[in-house]
Amino acid sequence: MAACAIAPSFRSVPSAARPFGCATECHEKETAVLGQAVRYVVKRFASAGSFPSVPRLGLDQESFKRLLAAFRLESTPACEAVSPPEDFWELTSLLIESGDGSEETRWVAHAVATACLADDHLWQDLGLPDRNALTRLLERYFRPLRERNVGEMRWKKFFYKQLCERAGFQACKAPSCRECSDYPTCFGKE
Ligand code: SF4
Where are the domains of the chain? Predict the structure, then answer.
């Protein structure tokens, strides 16, 4: 597979120093998946008339410009000046806290939080082929958070459960998942 042109910061990391022991070919695949997700989210949610719409994926103007350049995207027509809901910002914070502090990780966090506002499974709202591709992406950028999803809960459910727990809310109907009527909604095939 030809080396991907996106995410140059990551591509330049020597293989021995790359996280998760992933070989070069594996990282090129992951980088291609990242490009697929970012392009999809920008086109679908950061364009005029999109719904939900998140202008610049919630990034500041300069960072969004760098994202467009890194992923070879044309600038999008400005969408209406709507502010993302509060949980968008809470979710980006949750993700960013679990990342390595790089701008690339912030881009992914904003893309994931944006896709969480739509109605389908998260992998679908990121334009990915399946849940596995999404899980690998989350493992690469937000590994501590990914590892907390030990039961393989659906990703959107998992993220919002984390936010509820942070806020001190008990979002669950039952004391344990095994006896909960919502089990299929939380853990069903995604
Ligand atoms: S299955 Fe029930 S108890 Fe488990 S996370 Fe979902 S809502 Fe909470």
Answer: 8-187
